């Protein structure tokens, strides 16, 4: 990473400036530049778009090379996730972040907690993208600062071997900055509103924007009832708006993820406009729940469409929404997927009601008949009861194999009584391999969990509160948190360092030399943690 030509250029610059820059150390400038690799969000968007495009090509060649992410709702949570990945897995390759509109609504709105219905401030989305990358860049600065301090100590000790080793770590440092797939919901308004918000998201660093085919002002969480979709032409206009935003800002290979909620959406806001029989509008309308009528059957206020010489009256609710025919969800998903990929989308997202690989694969196979390299982003959703779903799938599999399943009650398989059974072990193994198997069989390029850190924050807080305010008292924190941090090498045990105290001390020395007043001296209690 260190550019020695830049160091030479900095030295030349300081020499040109003369004695007025005598206090500027070119190596310190080089260090600060190295710690601040990305200066703008657009640099991040381009860097991460290149990563995603590379990963997509590698997945096309080998489906075992799928990608993953966890949804995060704060910069610190995203930062700690990437620090953990680097610590345990040694590389951030094929590991992304997901920005969940659900968590923005629930945790980041000035209105307070809101449901996932696009009621939160749209500006909260680019603000969170910027925050996430601020924390990831700070993780880079912190990690490199630790290496620079080690380098100084090795030089002072005259240990040339250590100097060479540490310098190689600096030169090959892998950034914590990774792609973010960012949720723009249904676009927060008309296509112009979508374009303007997409620009803000890209300027903040987003290389991949996910947009769904619901009605903006009726948007629902993908796992709630009452979802309303829009005709294809309306959705394609928003996909085009996002592409224009990428192109205007020079991110020519930005990624658009087109999400279809049609599998669980039984309603549409309006009848599609059709120019000729068999066009997109006509095909969309063909899924409507209609009854054949004659002129004599019509009453004031009726809406009818004409198809193949027949007058058809769509079923319309008091809300002025129209019903689709039952059982058409998968056909609508397939048409959505093909249409989106043919009109500018790069990846698909199919929102399903359960994690079932055969169901997902069935739809993807049909899409791939038209678009052979179609790929999915798939929501490994916390809204699914994974234990019950996969125990029921295991039950059905065992039954198909002719095994005796009389000891199990299929509707009650969540019970702890089944935890130590062959069926439970089979189900857990299917859960363990779900991502690998889904990537191989169902075209899933990217697996994500939308809101895991919402749940982990609640669970860990419950664990601590239960003990701390109970009989355990301070032992609940020491045993459940601090002792584990120390023994498991969790960097936050030295929370002053994590918050940037040591970086600040080094900067003070850059700026003031021996006169610097540092916070990290012998009386800093963080020294208890090494």
Task: Summarize it.
This protein has helices at residues 4-17, 26-35, 41-61, 75-89, 101-107, 124-157, 160-171, 191-204, 232-248, 280-285, 329-342, 357-368, 386-400, 422-432, 434-441, 452-468, 474-488, 495-498, 501-512, and strands spanning 67-72, 95-99, 180-183, 208-212, 228-229, 255-260, 267-268, 290-293, 305-307, 310-314, 322-323, 347-350, 376-379, 444-449.
- End-to-end distance: 28 Å
The strands making up the biggest β-sheet line up spatially as: 1-2-3-4-6-12-13-14
Structural class: alpha/beta
* CATH class annotation of the domain at 38-139 and 179-271 and 328-405 and 438-453: Alpha Beta
Overall pLDDT metric: 92
Say how many strands there are: 14
CATH architecture of the domain at 38-139 and 179-271 and 328-405 and 438-453: Alpha-Beta Barrel
**Morphology call:** globular
Radius of gyration: 28 Å
Name the beta content range: 5-15%
Write the CATH homologous superfamily of the domain at 38-139 and 179-271 and 328-405 and 438-453. Answer: Phosphoenolpyruvate-binding domains
Q: How can the largest sheet be summarized? A: 8 strands, parallel, barrel
Number of helices: 19
Fold-level CATH name of the domain at 38-139 and 179-271 and 328-405 and 438-453: TIM Barrel
Helix content: 40-55%
Primary descriptors:
530 residues, alpha/beta, TIM Barrel, eight-stranded parallel beta barrel, three-stranded mixed beta sheet, 19 helices, 11% strand
Explain what you see:
The chain has 530 residues and is of the alpha/beta class. Among the domains are: 1-36, no CATH class; 38-139 and 179-271 and 328-405 and 438-453, Phosphoenolpyruvate-binding domains (TIM Barrel); 470-513, no CATH class. It is 49% helix and 11% strand. The protein is built from 19 helices and 14 strands. The strands form three sheets. It has an eight-stranded parallel beta barrel with strand order 1-2-3-4-6-12-13-14, surrounded by nine helices. It has a three-stranded mixed sheet with strand order 5-7-11, with no helix packed on it. Strands 8-10-9 form a three-stranded antiparallel sheet, with no helix packed on it. The chain starts with a helix and ends in an 18-residue tail after the last helix.
